[in-house]
Amino acid sequence: MQIKYTLSEDKMPKAWYNIQADLPTPVPGVLNPATGQPITPTDLESLFPMALIKQEVSTEPNIQIPEPVQSIYRQWRPTPLYRARRLEKHLDTPAKIYYKYEGVSPAGSHKPNTAVAQAYYNKEAGIQCLTTETGAGQWGSALAFAGALFDLEVVVYMVKVSAQQKPYRRALMESYGAKVIPSPSHETQAGRAILADNPQSTGSLGIAIGEAVEVALGNKTANYALGSVLNHVLLHQTVIGLEAQTQLDMAGDYPDIIVACTGGGSNFAGIAFPFLGAKLRGEQKTTRFVAVEPTACPTLTKGKYAYDFGDTAHLTPLVKMHTLGSSFVPPGIHAGGLRYHGMSPLISHLVELGLIEPRAYPQLSCFAAGVMFARTEGILPAPEANHAVKGAIDEALRCKEEGISRTILFNLCGHGHFDMQSYIDYHAGRLQDSEYNEQEIAMALAGLPVVS
Ligand SMILES: Cc1ncc(COP(=O)(O)O)c(C=O)c1O
Question: 380: Cβ below 6 Å to ligand 1?
């Protein structure tokens, strides 16, 4: 009985899949907050290289992966697809559960798939320094790794609560040569404004993004790199789903249900978009797509679909997305990568079209699922990935109740080896389920920008 479906390096995808080619209606455009008008490529040039700006708006179905990027991908790609036979047995379910394991990358998650591509295009454009934010530390580690390979300076604003929870992530980023600054910091106007208001601020991705963007805007040789949300980031992640398609062919299966966690939407898009594209093109009809988020930061399930800023300091353009309001600071749950007030415009658009089902879980049930997964499959998931594990287990239990065998595919987007404090706290009974604060969200949403 086969467990692992592996591909040789020559089977790695040579092009990323761009879902914008197959959308029934185009994703709403990005607006310049000063004018309320659609943003122009030149508006974005102070932050991103032109190659990435072009990818952001491209409607080409396939975008070639540059050979230098492919050659770095080969360090860990193609990643394995596993059949979770022991988990299936433990659940006593008729479902078949497969998971794509992105934790084999050097940084331990899917994030290097885009970090390497972004570093490459920035280096080609003559950029010397990249600034960024990180929540869980996975994205910061990925960009620090990519920066080391392309000889780029990397400056990471790390959400303060994550910096406290994950000192070893910081050490990893510094080992790759990056500079790590807990956010909010005194180094930027954006950080100082937050600290003046609340010196005890635990930080948020929105605040850290504001700091990183401010630094990039003030330095001609620096650009900003975002680890999720934007179309080009989701595009780079599609290598995950493209490989999974070939691997499931080898297994003689096709997924009925695809599950992934959603912070900004990139690992979800990575595994889901190639399959969703097939559905949009009418090549198959029945696959369901489940996006799982934490109840503490329920962007898709409780947020408003509106134009909002990507950061708290309001330095970014306006994007149409599900949002909890750019000033919302989610509770300090351990799934730091899921603590973002917004969501990728592409994912939000597809939720609005009824093509993706959003779902929210509290963190304790996700840790319980992660521990069950570790005890059956041996891999300890990142706290973010636990949300996908929980979603997949729930779908498998539903199959058991209904007596139906369905094929479930989920993305195990990262390992939890740098997240052990969260497991220590979980086992000691110190973790709590934090619901979102309705009043705080209402306040943050009241501050949404007015767009005519
Ligand atoms: C392991 C892991 N999973 C998921 C996420 C959420 O991001 P996204 O929704 O873009 O995949 C993060 C973000 O930092 C992460 O580190």
Answer: no
